[in-house]
Amino acid sequence: MGEAMFRRNRGFSLLELIVTMAVIAIIVGIAVPSFNSMIARSRISAGANQLVAGIQTARLLALRSNARVDLCPSTDGSTCSGSDWRHFAIIMRKGGTPTPQRDVQINGTGIVAVGSPLVSASNKIWFLADGFARTGTSTAPGKGTVSICTTRLSSENARDVQINASRVSVERPTRAGCGSPGEPLDTTL
């Protein structure tokens, strides 16, 4: 009988287990929405970064090759076609012959609309050997904005990639709605 009184209980009681599970459930309930927002912000920033990298690549290629280089939406990756900036191509035009250089697709579910046409006539950005961005049919250095937007965020749900002649910047505005893929969100010229 003496040994039974001093025997140690091993493990957890049912009450301790239930309290622990409740605490874990509360922590997970708080963390999951924040984690989803973090993933959405990361995806939209990655899309904007891909677009900035494409712009910088096109500019560098124009400087290096002394030729015109176009950056434009593309459905096939080798020609300027379509209006959805989630898929764009970098095309060098040396001697008038278009040569595809790079095909980029912005990935990420939840990015509903990418891009606003920079100009209604051509929907492209192009560079000459001086490295200045141009839009439309004008040979003068230009400026424009390509917007990337998601419905998965309530604030700072867009990234505006702004091209101003030789400079590229990214802003984080909040948009009321995102529209559908390829739909113009904002045209600034």
Automatic annotation (TrEMBL):
<keyword id="KW-1003">Cell membrane</keyword>
<feature type="domain" description="General secretion pathway GspH">
    <location>
        <begin position="48"/>
        <end position="166"/>
    </location>
</feature>
<dbReference type="InterPro" id="IPR022346">
    <property type="entry name" value="T2SS_GspH"/>
</dbReference>
<dbReference type="Pfam" id="PF12019">
    <property type="entry name" value="GspH"/>
</dbReference>
<dbReference type="InterPro" id="IPR045584">
    <property type="entry name" value="Pilin-like"/>
</dbReference>
<keyword id="KW-1133">Transmembrane helix</keyword>
<feature type="transmembrane region" description="Helical">
    <location>
        <begin position="12"/>
        <end position="35"/>
    </location>
</feature>
<protein>
    <recommendedName>
        <fullName>Type II secretion system protein H</fullName>
    </recommendedName>
</protein>
<keyword id="KW-0997">Cell inner membrane</keyword>
<keyword id="KW-0812">Transmembrane</keyword>
<dbReference type="GO" id="GO:0005886">
    <property type="term" value="C:plasma membrane"/>
</dbReference>
<keyword id="KW-0472">Membrane</keyword>
<keyword id="KW-0488">Methylation</keyword>
<dbReference type="GO" id="GO:0015628">
    <property type="term" value="P:protein secretion by the type II secretion system"/>
</dbReference>
<dbReference type="GO" id="GO:0015627">
    <property type="term" value="C:type II protein secretion system complex"/>
</dbReference>
<dbReference type="InterPro" id="IPR012902">
    <property type="entry name" value="N_methyl_site"/>
</dbReference>
<comment type="similarity">
    <text>Belongs to the GSP H family.</text>
</comment>
<dbReference type="Pfam" id="PF07963">
    <property type="entry name" value="N_methyl"/>
</dbReference>
